[in-house]
Amino acid sequence: MSRESRWWFLRKIGRVLTSGFHRVEFADFWLGDQLCSLAFPLGGIYFVGCSYAVGFHSDHFQRCSTLAPWGVPFFLGALPLLARFFQSVRRWWDSSLVTHLINAGKYFMGILCCFLYYSWRHHGTCLSEGFRSRLSTFVFLCFFETIGSLYAISWDLLVDWSVLRPHARFVFLRDELIYSSYILVANILIRFNWVIYLPRRGPSPPVRSLIIALLEVLRRWQWNIYRLENEHIGNMDQYRVTREVPLPYSFDELGYETDVGDEDDRTRTRSATLSSDTCCPELRGIHTRER
Predict the structure, then answer these.
(1) Which residue numbers delimit the EXS domain (predicted)?
(2) For the purposes of burial, counting CB atoms within 10 Å of the CB of 3, is it exposed (0-12), middle (13-18) or buried (19 or more)?
(3) CB 131 within 8 A of CB 124
């Protein structure tokens, strides 16, 4: 990126980190949504530092996952969700639209799910030996993750993408559709990617976290396509992407002549005057007196 682009990006990052203290623009909440899909690498910042501190032994992942200060990776991973929560509250404060409060509830649910996940991982999986007493944490995690996934899916389909219209030209989609609708199915499935953590047997926790992170990046990429498509269609419907806004009347009905006609009339008048002066010199005096 150029120097101006880097400074622009850093300013937008600063606006995301100070969400709630200023008016929210499109680039602010758009960048905040992208950061929400980076919860795994943000939380991994603490894990990398812990691994260097304890040494890269065979059990370094377990040691860094069960150390006392698990709140640090939780805070880093939930920071984008917290920023989007404050952005939604600020948009509600500025516009008084209840839909922004509903959106804030979605991010609050995401923060709660993130908290339950780190708490569950810190105390150990309830399905492993020696952790049967922590079944309640596991149940709460599954319950709120299910509600959070359904909450996010409903918002994606009804608000961000404006689909599931009952009388749309494309059945249960919308009147204007540019990209393939398979993205809708993929988004719903990936929203439940947290179930990868549930099986007792299978890949190790780091591998599962990597798979979930890659799936989330894929989901966000597809989400961006449909979100921008919906934004562009909405701008076209409100005539925000054209220089000429159609008016409810025409100039012909009001009796006005077009500029082209006026220009032609002026040209013909000047041509007639020049012709009469050139062809009939005796009429010059008449024209002069009339003027």
Answers:
(1) 64-259
(2) exposed
(3) yes
pLDDT greater than 60 at residue 286: no
**Max alpha carbon distance in the chain (Å)?**
121
| CA–CA distance, 236 with 218 (Å, rounded to integer) | 28
Q: What amino acid is encoded at 122 in this protein?
A: H
pLDDT in tens, 246-255: 666 665 555 5
Q: Are 115 and 78 in contact (CB under 8 A)?
A: yes
* Structure token pair of residue 111: 């923060």
Q: How far is CA 119 from the centre of its chain?
A: 29
Q: Is the pLDDT reported for residue 206 higher than 80?
A: no
Q: How far is Cα 278 from Cα 272, in angstroms, rounded to an integer? A: 10
User: Cα 156 vs. chain centroid, distance in angstroms?
Assistant: 10
DSSP state of 239: T
Q: 216, 193 in Cβ contact below 8 A?
A: yes
Residue 12, C-beta contacts closer than 8 angstroms, at least 6 positions apart: 27, 28, 31
- Return the domain boundaries, the chain: 3-237
Alpha helix ranges (H) inside 124-181: 135-155
Burial class (CB in 10 A: 0-12, 13-18, 19+), 259: exposed
Quickly state the pLDDT bin for 176 (edges 50, 70, 90). low
Residues in the chain: 291
Cα 47 to Cα 26: distance, rounded to the nearest angstrom: 33
Consecutive H or E run containing 213:
helix 205-237
